[in-house]
Every structure is written in C-alpha cells, then in structure tokens.
Amino acid sequence: MNTVELHGVTKSFGRTRALTDVDLTFDRGVTGLLGPNGAGKTTLLRIVATSIAADKGRVSLLGRDPGGSHDDVTAIRRQLGYLPQELGYPGDMTAFGFVEYVAVLKEWNDRQRRLAEVRRVLALVDLAELATKRVTKLSGGQRRRVALAQALIGDPRILVLDEPTTGLDPSQRADLRRTLSVIANDCAVLLSTHQTEDVAALCERVVVLAGGTIRFDGPVADLIATAEGLVWLSDDPAPDALASWRTGTGRHHVVGGTPPLGSVATEPTLEDAYLLMLGADARNVRAPA
Prior knowledge:
- This protein is 31% helix and 26% strand.
- It is an alpha/beta fold.
- Helix 3 (95-105) crosses helix 4.
- InterPro entries: AAA+_ATPase, ABC_transporter-like_ATP-bd, ABC_transporter-like_CS, P-loop_NTPase.
C-alpha cells in the first residue's frame, strides 16, 4: 500500500476543469511537482492535503478515505502537514504563538508536550531566536519558515509543500533541502515548485503537470535524458528555439529548434527537459536571466 494514492481524480471549479483523470501514487521520499501557472498543481496539492475533495475518482491517504468518516479524516490530518502557497497570520501573534495555535488545532492537548514540539519545529527551521517576535515584524523569508514549522508539527507521514522556498535566500534554501532530505526518510513529501534546481537537488522522481493532466511521471534522470541532443551553446541567438537566452559567458543557451551554425551540443539540465516537455506552453514560462 502506498502512502498516497490517487486514481482517476478529476476536479472542476464551475466550468473550468482543473484536473482530468489524474493517477498518482507515492510513498516515502520527495516527489517533485512541476508545471506552468494554471496547470492544476495547487488543486492537486489541496486534494492531497484534504482541503478540498475531488469531484471524481478515488483518493487514499495512509490507507484511509479522506471523504469518509470523521474518524478517518481526523486520523489523516493528525499525520499530515500542509504548507500552502499563502498563509494568513493573526496580526498580534508571535512566531511561537502561531505555531502553538496550529498545534492546538491538531489536538496536541498536553501543554508540556505541545510546547516542546513547538520549540523543536522552530529550531528545525532555524527560528528559535525569533520565536517571541511578532510574525508581522518578520521578513518574508522568515514568515515562510514559520509556515514550514507549522507543517512539520508531529513528524507528519505526509508533507504537502506549495512553493516552500519562496522568499528564502540561497543559504536558507540549502538548509531547507538538508531538512527535507532527512524528513523524507520516513515521510511522503509532495513538493510543488517553479524552481527546477530544487527538484534536481532533492528529488529522485518528478511529475510534470500541464493543462490538468500528467505529462510525465518518473525519475528526474529519465526526464533529463529526453532532452539529450536538443540543447546547444551558440554564439548567436536562435529565432526558432523553444527557449534561448544569453549566458554569463556571452554565449547563448539554446533549447529546441534548429541549432545555429557553429553551435555545440551541451549537457541538458532538468530545466531544459522541462521546457521541452511543455512544448509550446514553455513560451509562457520565464527563462532565467
């Protein structure tokens, strides 16, 4: 039995179809989720996080039905951590107070155990020294770490992360990667991000979602391999390329299209393969400067 199982999952909002017949199963480890804006990523995460229900299909979390009995839903949520893309904070709460508030909602009723757990997760995200500071006075990156701390309460068996590295500097992103790599030994992590380097650094498996359907599901190395022979370095730009940009060396990194005269094939990255997988949709994805 997989920790998370989705079979034939479909979800619409009014006349807009967000997901169509999505099949996805995963267990311990970090599964990366990539896709352009509007692909259905957040909808998929919210279904796994039990925030919304699918219109059609079957969902099983930890062997239980999130649309089933109150006992099933409660049991799932006690073992699930969710970091949404945006999280509201009461204006007068400290970092410690907010994380403790979430712990209370998760029914950590023993006060001493609850306080110890709040201290533990704040230390995990390197916020112990800022625990008594109001959340509204923290920087964007610090608030993001508060949000991550609440998701880590209770060593969840399922961890759902929507853009967890938003607002983090390179050092903080490296710290987060180290933390998640340890957590993933005993936890099924679903990580949605626009940062392909985070997926390359953390994940063995990647899922590409576009137009509400899964375009790719497999090892990161297999996705990169699909771009072999389709990426070049050139002295000149390539007008018909799927993506092309001038690098810091002065040469142009060319993805897809016809290789310019004098170009040299180069090893593709995950980002290159992702852009090629999206095809025409990739033109709406901003390439690096």
